[in-house]
Design brief:
85 residues, mainly alpha, 3 helices, elongated
Length: 85
């Protein structure tokens, strides 16, 4: 058997301890149940997502569509890309 050390915020630790106690477990049992689930399913049992890139937000994409439509309608000016040193 191996020992594992975790560092959690005190409030999070207390809330988690209270919650798993209501379920009839202690923290050691909770983490063991979690580890068994991960090993059995071979995946983390919930989704982890990175925050959305603001460039691809719906508001920005709409703005880009409007700008492209204006350019396609001839309501714009084309410029050469100038590389800066």
């Amino acid at each position: 058997m191996a020992a594992v050390t975790l560092t959690l915020d005190d409030n999070m630790m207390n809330a988690l301890d209270d919650l798993v106690s209501e379920m009839g477990m202690n923290l050691s049992t909770f983490f063991t149940v979690y580890a068994v689930k991960v090993l059995r399913d071979r995946r983390i049992p919930f989704y982890i997502e990175a925050p959305e890139d603001p460039f691809y937000s719906e508001a920005n994409m709409e703005r880009l569509r409007e700008s492209a439509a204006q350019l396609n309608a001839g309501k714009g000016k084309s410029h050469e890309l100038i590389e800066a040193d």
